Amino acid sequence: MHRGITVVAAPDSFKGSLSALQAAQAMAAGARRALGPGATITPVPMADGGEGTLDALLDAWEGREQLHEVTDAIGRPRIARYGLSADGTTAVIEAAEANGLPHVRDATLRPLLADSAGVGELARAALEAGAREILLCIGGSATTDGGTGILRALGARFLDRDGNPTRPGGGSLAAIDHIELDDLHPLARQASWRIAVDVDNPLVGARGAAAVFGPQKGATPSDVAVLDAGLAHLAAALADETGTDEDTLLRAPGMGAAGGIPAALTAVLGAQTVPGSRLVADAVGLPALLADADVVLTGEGSLDAQSLHGKVVDGVRACAREGAAVVVIAGRVDLTATEVAEAGLTAAVSIARGPSAARQLRHNAAELVAEAAETVCRLLAHH
Predict the structure, then answer these.
(1) Does the model's pTM come out above 0.90?
(2) Residues 298, 304, 310, 314, CA torsion sign
(3) Which residue, 339, 337, 196, 285, is CA-closest to 10?
């Protein structure tokens, strides 16, 4: 028995194998086998703002999943999920539940017409259910409309020079002459909005939303040119209407995420963009949980250089107190021991027992994660 040792298990999901909750529970079980009942062991499922964030926050909050009928990125009805905290005041929305690319792969992609209205419909439902803070996770979108669809669903109007509403989608952004916000839902104005991003692309240009992500959504080179010009025009229109600095909308890191969604929400609703892992860490109270932790276990399916830039491992490492042992447990470790140490991590451990096929790892993932956590904790407890 090891009295007084405090362990926090805060992993991401192991894609295709374990949810974040299952991974955290497996790590906690392994730590308990190593340390006995005298240790304090807390599982904290994590995410980086992408797929799985809704489930991770619902688990951490003991919150409520809600269902709402919305339109997908090409206007078809679908049932989408969002989550409410236990007290009902905070909502988490995975935008891809409404405007996600996987939901429209059965149809011809429409990069100039796809729009984010369904995300706004989810937000409206959450606000009318009592939410006063919206945590919006925007990865995996099929849209490049600068967030205009979201605002339209919340009551904004985008009008051409004749005073007619412009057509939804990124292909019509250049036709916007002015923006009317008089009928914007009052609850949307009053709410606090935070947007989880895991990319730092600007709105326009060679690294912008259209150039980098448009082709994944079906955009041809000519489509990319139309979308890029439209997003630049939208930034000017938003700046004129709201007084927001136009250059900030065009060039600030992250404005190009999810087809430019942060641009419109920043200008009109004062939304803040934050790294996804930090948003989740703050939402689940991770800094406080790690304040006294002696051992911090985190992990994901594959640990590589990208893991150290805004992903869960990076966020957990940043929250850990000085002197704590921070160990990554992963299906695959693609960093050297020196790279791991230089990243401020104590160690990284693969769950593979010798040469293992991915199928074998997936099938036995929970026990392999638990065994790795047990090994790590036995080693650390004797030093």
Answers:
(1) no
(2) positive
(3) 285
